């Protein structure tokens, strides 16, 4: 416990030194902007592209990041996606190619407006920011370009310029990665389907969760109702000597007549003579 506590204190007091000498590799993830202060003195492998954010370097140390292409048959180019600096900027920014040639001049770039164009780095390069006394807020995008023979490899977008191809995943993302901006031209759909697809998936997940919750709630309620004792049946009164009306109706059983005096019947004859009545009992 004491060792970890001492390390924590040293991390606060000597944060810059520990950060520069950190042996941890960079975990590159797609669609993320990487803070320059967190990747100083590191080797970063560029897979398709990476955005490096330079922010608030006032009074900070100098920082260098080595950039390497992910595939052998590819080259790196960098351009400034965002740039803001004061007129008295002294923290110069520079890009060095694989031959260690300064792309932004030997003294580096330190002006208020963003440098224009794409800068060739080769299979590897270096981003360097000098220690200065004024802040810079910029995003430098480093893109991996594939050199095609006759056509672009599968899954790559053809820039139709200088045999360059880029990953299809970074085409039509509102950042012109091809030098001629072909990847943000008329071929791009008006509607960006990526956020829409994400929204559809999110709504589907929410609906599925609601349906599952309703099913669980109904099943729980049914079990609770099943554990309750049934109420006693209501008493039913039937007239004495009679069948239930429903039973009579469905089964065609005649209703039983109430107990009364026997009725006398006399057969009908052609003779007008009357025959004494005989008593018969109902069947």
Automatic annotation (TrEMBL):
Domain of life assignment: Eukaryota
Biased composition (Polar residues): 268-283
Signal peptide, first to last residue: 1-19
Family matches, as InterPro entries: LDL_receptor-like_sf, LDrepeatLR_classA_rpt
UniProt region (Disordered), positions on chain: 223-283
Transmembrane segments annotated in the record for this chain: 196-217
Keyword set includes Methyltransferase: no
Pfam family, one: Ldl_recept_a
Keywords, comma-separated and alphabetical: Disulfide bond, Membrane, Signal, Transmembrane, Transmembrane helix
Protein name as annotated: Uncharacterized protein
Organism in which the protein naturally occurs: Lymnaea stagnalis
């Amino acid at each position: 416990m004491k060792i970890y506590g001492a390390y924590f204190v040293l991390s606060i007091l000597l944060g810059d030194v520990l950060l520069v000498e950190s042996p941890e590799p960079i975990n590159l993830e797609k669609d993320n902007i990487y803070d320059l202060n967190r990747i100083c003195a590191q080797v970063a492998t560029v897979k398709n592209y990476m955005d490096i954010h330079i922010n608030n370097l006032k009074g900070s140390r100098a920082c260098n990041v080595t950039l390497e292409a992910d595939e052998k048959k590819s080259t790196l180019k960098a351009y400034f996606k965002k740039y803001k600096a004061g007129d008295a900027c002294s923290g110069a920014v520079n890009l060095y190619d694989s031959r260690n040639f300064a792309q932004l001049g030997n003294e580096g770039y330190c002006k208020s407006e963003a440098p224009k164009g794409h800068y060739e780095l080769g299979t590897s390069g270096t981003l360097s920011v000098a220690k200065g006394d004024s802040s810079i807020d910029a995003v430098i995008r480093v893109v991996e370009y594939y050199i095609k023979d006759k056509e672009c490899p599968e899954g790559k977008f053809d820039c139709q310029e200088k045999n360059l191809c880029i990953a299809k995943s970074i085409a039509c993302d509102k950042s012109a990665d091809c030098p001629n901006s072909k990847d943000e031209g008329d071929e791009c759909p008006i509607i960006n389907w990526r956020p829409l697809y994400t929204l559809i998936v999110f709504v589907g997940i929410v609906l599925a969760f609601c349906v599952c919750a309703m099913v669980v709630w109904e099943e729980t309620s049914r079990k609770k109702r099943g554990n309750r004792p049934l109420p006693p049946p209501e008493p039913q009164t039937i007239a004495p000597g009679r069948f239930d009306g429903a039973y009579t109706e469905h089964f065609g059983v005649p209703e039983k007549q109430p107990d009364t005096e026997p009725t006398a019947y006399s057969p009908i004859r052609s003779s007008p003579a009357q025959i004494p009545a005989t008593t018969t009992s109902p069947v």
